[in-house]
TrEMBL record, chains A, B:
The keyword Cytoplasm does not apply. Keywords: Kinase, Transferase. It comes from Pelagimonas varians. CDD domains: ASKHA_NBD_KDGal-kinase (cd24012). The keyword Transferase applies. One of its GO terms (molecular function) is 2-dehydro-3-deoxygalactonokinase activity. Pfam families: DGOK. InterPro entries: ATPase_NBD, DGOK, DGOK_C, DGOK_N. It comes from the Bacteria. This is 2-keto-3-deoxy-galactonokinase. GO terms for biological process: D-galactonate catabolic process.
Length: 305, 305
């Protein structure tokens, strides 16, 4: 018996700061088609989000009239429609109950998923978009567990009984870029392929008992200065040091079971090594979990049957 | 009885990355005259250090024939004459025994003080110039104790029985500059006078048990985003967070007695607050201790009587 592709039922959009992905989703939640564009919210010309959206779904002529759900930084102050946050703990029902609809001048309703906020010792934390990915991932046999989403602002997210229980953001990617490009640490770096040994050495330094990031960063300068690592290893040593410090800071001693890594393959490789050095196992989420999250939230809101 | 100014006996030069100070020093070690210039080693045109030096001491016509001693980044790879390092523990005699003389084309001998190195868990640490300041400071009743030298690359230095016993570098100032100018943290900053309350709040976050710098940095974004600190407080909150993290990393629990702060007044004010929050008292070193260090090293080497 051949499986028959179902009819399109939903358009899901993951619209971030630097890129944008749209999914044509079938009645069973499966991805029928997808498109990626570099038009993240910072790159939309003259803030014409509506025009970008029209161009995006244009090729899906058969999608006219479908419900549209969108998540990500598109709901931030610099996006299309700013939405409030829901608080942790929240899951698919809370997100479905907080959707913000917006009608375009063409009469299409785009339904926005709000972000989610938490607070640690008076310091708020925020995410927009990751909550939708986690909803999707938690449907894939991860209704309880720890997720890491590596990137410019890495997120560590704890899910309990299908609710996002808490999370914390780490500025690992942004600190890496700033130190590589705008500090003395960049001056001794030479380009080349991934140096796993140097990455592991840096990671171990970041994970070490008694590590002190502001001090350990200076080692990224002195190790090559003293010929202890080669110029083509400096960048991966720095990457390892920061990822190790992040993993250490994520309170890994309290983590039970494998960590689910949600991210680009090259970054996921690094986190897999770092987690292993920290004594943790890991799994990887499939690439299109965000579309699964869009579908589940749309279902809970009655946008699809 | 009037004191009579002694004759000039030595020229001391503290030649760093971004600036340069020269001292005309008397036979008793007192500073008779001094000059500051912005010609740090990165700003010396065409690497003409000899020309800069000639211009520097030119106005001191009466100084012809005096011994000249120079310390700082001028002895690094990007400086005038690269010198090796001495290792910790070392003091005035070890530095005097490792001086590197260099004769200019005018026949003037400039004697360079080498830097000092240490090693923690295989990661080397380096300084060039700070050792001379500490030698000078240790003569001022600090033959044992802890020194902090705030700056781009802050140093925490332990002196035991007049020897520099060990030290550690923290990239606090450079991380501050990179995050302020080249990360999302700068986008919500507004200029204004020093906000001590915000600085203290940041400092407390950096010092807190369980603080995690890569995570805590994200608070520098979310606190103003949620209206918990005003835009004109963001920069000082960031400064406090980093200085707090540095002080915490400097293992303050092991420090006995007041910490001697050696640095610019505005930075010293911040470290005084941070040390107080960490439960430590502090003192400040006078501004010209480096000239005292030059004199003591020159004396130990027999360059002055």
């Amino acid at each position: 018996m051949n499986s028959v592709a179902s009819e399109p039922a939903l358009i899901g959009i993951d619209w971030g700061t630097s890129s944008l992905r749209a999914f044509l989703i079938g009645a069973g939640g499966e991805v029928l088609d997808q498109v990626s564009k570099p038009e993240g919210i910072m790159h939309v010309k003259d803030g014409d989000f509506e025009g970008s959206f029209r161009d995006l779904i244009g090729p899906w002529g058969n999608a006219a009239g479908l419900p549209v759900i969108a998540s990500g930084m598109i709901t931030s102050r610099n996006g299309w429609v700013e939405t409030p946050y829901v608080s942790v703990p929240s899951g698919v029902n809370e997100l479905a109950g907080a959707l913000v609809p917006h009608k375009t001048s063409d009469g299409v309703t785009v339904t926005f998923v709000t972000g989610m906020t938490t607070d640690h010792d008076g310091a708020p934390d925020v995410m927009r978009g990751e909550e939708t990915q986690i909803i999707g991932a938690s449907a894939l046999g991860m209704s309880d567990g720890t997720f890491v989403m590596p990137g410019t602002h890495s997120k560590w997210i704890t899910v309990r009984s299908n609710l996002i229980d808490d999370y914390a953001t780490f500025m690992t990617g942004e600190v890496f870029a700033a130190m590589r490009q705008h500090s003395i640490l960049g001056t001794l770096m030479e380009e080349g392929p991934f140096q796993e040994g140097a990455f592991r050495k840096g990671c171990a330094a970041g994970l070490a008992e008694g590590s002190k990031l502001l001090h350990d960063l200076f080692g990224v300068r002195t190790l090559p200065l003293f010929g202890k690592i080669a110029g083509n290893m400096v960048e991966d040593y720095l990457s390892g040091l920061l990822i190790g410090a992040e993993i250490k800071g994520a309170d890994v001693a309290s983590i039970d079971g494998p960590v689910m890594i949600v991210g680009r393959d090259d970054l996921s490789d690094r986190y897999e090594i770092g987690l292993e050095l920290a004594g943790l196992t890991s799994k990887r989420a499939p690439d299109d979990i965000v579309a699964r999250g869009h579908f589940m939230i749309a279902q809970a809101a009655g946008l699809v049957s």
